[in-house]
Amino acid sequence: MSLALQAKLLRAVETGEIIPLGAIKAEKVDVRILAATNKNLIKEVEKGNFREDLFYRLNVVNIKIPPLRERKSDIPLFIDYFINQFNIIQKKKVEGVSPEALEILLNHNYPGNIREMRNIMEYVFIFCNEGQVWQKHLPEYLRAAVLSRRDRGEKEQILDALNKARWSKTKAAEFLQVDRSTLWRKMKKYKIMEKNS
Questions:
Q1: Is the C or the N end of the chain the one with fewer CB within 10 Å?
Q2: What are the tens digits of pLDDT across the range 162-177?
């Protein structure tokens, strides 16, 4: 918020009065102010972007809510909340999320925090009208991340088996319980080169 608007807010907090839009006379108000920010206000005060007097007026009870990525146990609660909300808004009958879709949602880091979670669920409701939400209903970037993680895991397993087998593809295939041709194909896929003799 601009410094001019901050000054008006400070005046309202200090006097308990506001001037309604279009009015010429101030009116008394009895309100509590709840302020939220995703910025470090102490640093903003130091930079001159936030009024120090307003900061100390607002900073009575300070509650820090960690980002969604730091409280994964809340994800199922938000999923249920958004499903209920979008069922009402869009008049649909989505019942919940399948275990495979839930696993993907639980493993995502949510750089966009709750807004991103809401957008994901809004996307889901474009493709899912009723029943459970499946992996196919999730945005492409979430599904691609799962495939990438699986590929990394599989590549590590192959390298581990090859190292244990001293790079004998026959023995490594036995460790992995796959055909030698399957191992060869996967080595090619992950660009795993044979060790030079």
A1: C
A2: 999 999 999 998 888 8
| Length reported for the chain | 197
Quick count: other Cβ atoms within 10 Å of Cβ 49?
Answer: 14
Q: Take residue 69 and report the two structure tokens written for it.
A: 């990525």
- The one-letter code for the residue type at 48 is G
Residues in Cβ contact with 89 at an 8 Å cutoff, skipping those fewer than 6 apart: none
Report yes or no on 194 lying in a domain: no
Number of domains, the chain: 3
Check residue 141 and give left, alpha or beta (phi > 0: left; psi -120 to 50: alpha).
alpha
* Count of Cβ atoms closer than 10 Å to residue 125 Cβ: 19
Note the pLDDT tens digit of each residue in 33-59: 888 888 899 999 999 999 999 999 999
Q: What is the pTM for the complete model shown?
A: 0.62
Owning domain of residue 172: 143-189
Which among 58, 78, 104 is the end of a domain? 58
Is residue 166 included in any domain, yes or no?
A: yes
DSSP state letter for 194: P
Q: What angle do CA 120, 116, 39 make, to 5 degrees?
A: 175
Quote the CA–CA distance of 49 and 152 in Å, as a whole number: 44
